[in-house]
Write a structure and sequence with these properties.
Distance between the termini: 38 Å
CATH class: Mainly Alpha
CATH architecture: Up-down Bundle
Number of helices: 6
Number of strands: 2
Strand order of the largest sheet: 1-2
Shape: globular
Radius of gyration: 16 Å
Helix content: 55-70%
Length: 152
């Protein structure tokens, strides 16, 4: 189950990046795909989500209860907007590099956990019940939005 879980994370991210690869920078940085967010903003958001996941994994390794980064924000939308706004001065290529690095770090961390007991216990690798089962579908959702740019 672990390998399949990790493969799903890899596959969905690759799908998202494939959608980005077919588009020019102007489209990626000016055309909204998710509310007011451009594809660039979506990539910034996903990089921050990966950083939040890495933080949660670090907390688990330290034997601490997990406190997700967005729990300290007034609401999820505010946290998301702050994540995107904090990257406004970065170029698309910088955001893309961060996104690729954060996912690589997430995959490496998850791969280091045992098959029978992942970071969130035995259910860590279950695509239905894992506390992080939403990560792959989150990428998929945003990937579909970015793919819509190619149809315009």
């Amino acid at each position: 189950m672990k390998n399949e879980f990790i493969a799903a994370l890899r596959t969905e991210r690759q799908g998202l990046l494939a959608a980005v690869d077919g588009l020019n920078e102007e489209t990626l940085t000016t055309v909204p795909v998710c509310g007011a967010w451009t594809a660039r903003d979506v990539l910034a958001h996903l990089a921050e989500v990966d950083l939040a996941l890495l933080s949660a994994l670090k907390q688990v390794r330290a034997g601490e209860p997990v406190k997700w980064a967005w729990e300290s924000a007034p609401d999820g939308d505010a946290w998301n907007q702050n994540a995107v706004a904090s990257r406004q001065s970065r170029s698309l290529s910088e955001i893309r590099a961060e996104l690729e690095q954060t996912r690589q770090d997430v995959l490496a961390d998850l791969a280091s956990w045992p098959e029978d007991s992942g970071p969130f216990g035995p259910e860590s690798w279950d695509p239905e019940t894992s506390p992080i089962c939403w990560i792959a579908s989150h990428d998929q959702e945003h990937g579909i939005a970015v793919q819509s740019l190619g149809a315009r």
